[in-house]
Design a protein that fits this description.
Helices cover about 40% and strands about 20% of the residues. By secondary structure, it is an alpha+beta fold. It has one domain. The chain has a 4-stranded antiparallel beta sheet with strand order 1-2-3-4, with helices on one face. The longest helix is centred in the N-terminal third of the chain and has 18 residues. The relative contact order is 0.19.
């Protein structure tokens, strides 16, 4: 798949994550990811990356960066992580064969 398609899906995936946060759809994935990491990571991590020791939960979503894309032709799953090697958890976005988002999950 082309790098343009890869970038397009990366952007779509991040938008879907941001839109799911704070909603019922995000309960078992994005919301859980944010709540877990706000409770587990030290205040110094948040201070370094967000300039606040107790940041707004929504700002955590803005930190997500692509860890990898994989699956069918390397564009079926897009996994996003927090900066640094602070967690094994990712927010994973799955695309169907038509290029539509098929789901969001929190994985380790």
């Amino acid at each position: 798949m082309t790098s343009a398609e890869n970038e397009k899906r990366k952007t779509l995936a991040l938008t879907a994550i941001k839109n799911a946060f704070g909603t019922e759809e995000g309960e078992g994935n994005v919301n859980l990811f944010v709540e877990h990491h706000l409770g587990e990571l030290p205040q110094s991590y948040w201070q370094q990356h967000l300039g606040a020791s107790s940041p707004e939960p929504k700002s955590v979503v803005g930190l997500l960066q692509l860890r990898s894309s994989w699956g069918d032709k390397g564009i079926e799953y897009f996994d996003f992580k927090l900066p640094g090697e602070v967690t094994d958890y990712v927010v994973s976005v799955r695309f169907d064969d038509s290029g539509n988002i098929d789901g969001i999950s929190m994985e380790s």
